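Database export, one record per block. Field names are fixed; values are copied verbatim from the stored entry.
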Amino acid sequence: MMETDNSPPRRLRLFLRDHRIMDADALVPQGQHLSTYLATRNRYLNLTDVSWLGTGENVEHLALKVANILWAASEDGEVSLGAPRAMEGPRRVEVELEGGYVVAAGLLLVADQRLSDYLQSSPMFIPLRDAVLMPRRKPLGDVVVNQEFIQMVREITETGVSPPPAREPAEVNATAESPRPDD
């Protein structure tokens, strides 16, 4: 499929599964969210003006397999992460990724939404707000993370302690319908 949108190229930072980082231009259509853009690429992402961080190598054009992207960010801030949701504010989570990476961030959930329901209904890339790479506390900013590499997501408080888990609907129904011992 040929890219025909006349939008200007957008600068992205891509952190790859093999720990390499690149900055590159991509033709993200005007108004499309980064999570949707990456999730709708068939298998490859067309990139230009690629700079490999760490080596300084520059490549004019390449096709990158989307499955190799661990997380991505909009370097110029012109591409939003994902569709806005009606919410009270981002819920703090720790996301454990393949390779031992742990990212603390805000996840845009609606009130009382379970993490598993959110993840099941989300596209391949999920948006995280104010992400920080732990334990060094290296700021990543707003990123989208490839769900293929998520091992676990847990809710945390500002102090880093997990709140009690939400009860599954089956547990709630079983409690409500269970006969009392004295019945």
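Remark 1: Strands lie at 10-16, 21-26, 44-53, 58-65, 69-74, 91-97, 102-107, 125-134, 138-146, 150-155.
Remark 2: Residues 95 and 153 are 5 Å apart (CA to CA).
End of record.
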